[in-house]
Design brief:
This protein starts with 14 loop residues before the first helix and ends with a helix. The strands form two sheets. It has an eight-stranded mixed beta sheet with strand order 1-2-3-6-7-8-9-10, sandwiched between helices. The chain has a two-stranded antiparallel ribbon with strand order 4-5. It has one domain: Rossmann fold (3-Layer(aba) Sandwich), CATH 3.40.50. A hairpin with a 6-residue loop joins strand 4 and strand 5. By secondary structure, the protein is α/β, with parallel strands linked by helices. The chain contains nine helices and ten strands. Pfam families: Lipase_3. InterPro entries: AB_hydrolase_fold, Fungal_lipase-type, OBL-like. One of its GO terms (molecular function) is triacylglycerol lipase activity. This is Putative lipase.
């Protein structure tokens, strides 16, 4: 993992800041000691780890995240999980709905319960660290991306006086219904960025029309170039370059493109 000091004064979107958020998402897969050491290298002097266990009606047993506190910035990063572990419950169209934050629509039950299990810890860390009007950021990869998006929505719709300054997700699955997606797009215009790497299979689940994506797509094509949109015709051609019969097979392009390292590598290349 590449370490670099994060610019805690960052506010708007830049590829460099997106790379920093990608590295923060990647860091969520490391052990606590590595997270704490890297936080110090990045200029953050406070760290809290969040870990809860629960038993939803899906093969998901816990939620893990961490929160970094610095002089000018707070980052909460949610850990993801392997795409093969998401297959069954992300593909289940009969999943019961979970009420959306602030009464705005509905979210996938598994995502709703996963965030609920860890939210009190996350919220307490933000309160404890926000002693200098620090900006607040959520990020995550895969399942962690869904939780980061919902954390931003929950903070805004339930406590709008502490609206997150930005939400960056990587390989995020569809998370909510059309109503919450629309409300979120309005509230987080120019503050939400959802990165999708070419044939990454996870953003294609759970199935439409029950679940929808939020907007603000940043698409990485087969050559690693970053785009603000995915044109329909050229996007279909681009995505076809690596397809295999089973996109969730361990060696498939759909899984290879989902790895967090692939997102970090692409954003590093787009720095030039």
């Amino acid at each position: 993992m590449t370490s670099a000091t994060i610019d805690q004064k960052a506010t708007g979107y830049t590829v460099r800041h997106a790379l920093c958020m990608a590295r923060a998402s990647e860091l969520a897969y490391q052990d606590e000691q590595t997270i704490e050491a890297t936080a110090r290298e990045w200029g953050f002097d406070r760290v809290r780890h969040h870990h809860t266990t629960f038993r939803p009606p899906f093969p998901l047993e816990d939620t893990q995240a961490y929160t970094l506190g610095g002089h000018s910035m707070i980052i909460t990063s949610f850990r993801g999980t392997e795409p093969v572990k998401l297959r069954d419950w992300l593909s289940d169209a009969t999943t019961p709905p979970w009420p959306g934050p602030g009464g705005k629509g509905y979210v996938h039950y598994g995502f709703g319960e996963a965030l609920e299990s860890v939210w009190p810890q996350v919220r307490a860390a933000i309160d404890a660290f926000r002693d200098n009007r620090q900006t607040v950021w959520f990020t995550g990869h895969s399942l962690g991306g869904a939780l980061a998006m919902l954390a931003g929505a929950r903070l805004h719709f339930e406590e709008p006086h502490v609206t997150a300054n930005g939400v960056y997700t990587f390989g995020q699955p569809r998370t909510c219904d059309r109503q919450l997606s629309k409300e979120f797009n309005t509230a987080f215009s120019d503050r939400m960025y959802r990165f999708v790497n070419n044939n990454d299979i996870v953003p294609q689940l759970p199935p439409e029309p029950a679940f929808h994506h939020v907007s603000a797509l940043r698409y990485i094509d087969a050559q690693g170039a970053l785009h603000h949109t995915m044109p329909l015709l050229s996007g279909l051609v681009d995505r076809a370059q690596g397809l295999t019969a089973d996109l969730l097979a361990p060696a498939s392009d759909g899984v290879r493109d989902h790895f967090m390292a692939a997102y970090v590598n692409a954003l590093e290349k787009n720095q030039n």
